[in-house]
Amino acid sequence: MQIPEPWTDCESLEKTAELTGFDMAAPDAIDGFSSRIIRAMDKDIIEVIYQTENTDEGEIRIRKGVGGEDISGDYNRYAEISTVHVDDLRVTMKGADGQISLAIWTSGGYADSIGLGGSADGVSSGEMSALVAAVR
User: Fold this and answer.
1) Is the pTM of the predicted complex or chain greater than 0.85?
2) In-domain check, residue 80
3) How far apart (Å, rounded) are the C-alpha atoms in residues 51 and 48?
4) Per-residue pLDDT tens for 4-47?
5) What superkingdom heads the lineage (predicted)?
C-alpha cells in the first residue's frame, strides 16, 4: 500500500492561496537557479522550490505554514545559530563557517522558513536577510 502524495503542484502562488486560504510572496526567480516549483500541502503549507539545472548542485526551499512551529523540514544540527532582525521580524539563522543555510521565523500566526539544500553552499547573513525581506 502506498501513502498518497500530500503535495499538490500549482501553476502560481495565487492557486496555492486558493487551496490553503492564505498567501505567500516569493521571488519569480533567483539568480543561479533555473526552475521554480510551486506547491501546497492541504490547508497547511505553501512551498516554493528553486532548483539549479543539475538538481544535485542545490536548491532553495521557501515555506510558509499555519502555526508557530519550525516547518523547514531541516533537522540538521548547525554549529552557528544567531538571531537577526529583518525589518520587524525576528529571524533565527543557522549555518556554519559564517555561511547561513537556514532561516526561520514566525509572523501573524504563520511560520516561515528558507532553507538551502543539496550541495549548495550557505549564503551570507546579508544575502539571507534579503531573501527573507523578499518573502515577507
Assistant:
1) yes
2) yes
3) 10
4) 778 999 999 999 999 999 999 999 999 888 899 999 998 999 99
5) Bacteria
- The angle formed by the CA atoms of residues 3, 5 and 11, to the nearest 5 degrees, is 175
Smallest CA-to-CA distance from 135 within 101, 110, 99 is with 110
Q: Which domain holds residue 30?
A: 7-135
3-state DSSP assignment of residue 11: coil
Note whether residue 62 is domain-resident.
yes
- CATH number for position 24: 3.40.1000
The burial of 108, by beta-carbon neighbours within 10 Å (0-12 exposed, 13-18 middle, 19 or more buried), is given as exposed
Per the domain annotation, does 73 fall within a domain? Answer: yes
- Within a domain: residue 1? no
Residue whose C-alpha cell is 498518497:
4
Compute the Cα dihedral for 39, 129, 105, 116 and give only its sign. Answer: positive
Q: C-alpha grid cell for residue 101?
A: 543555510
Cell of 78: 548547525
Q: Distances from the Cα of 135 to the Cαs of 2, 3, 10, 55, 103, in angstroms?
A: 34, 31, 18, 22, 11
The partner residues of 8 in beta bridges, in order of sequence, read 40
C-alpha cell read off for 99: 555561511
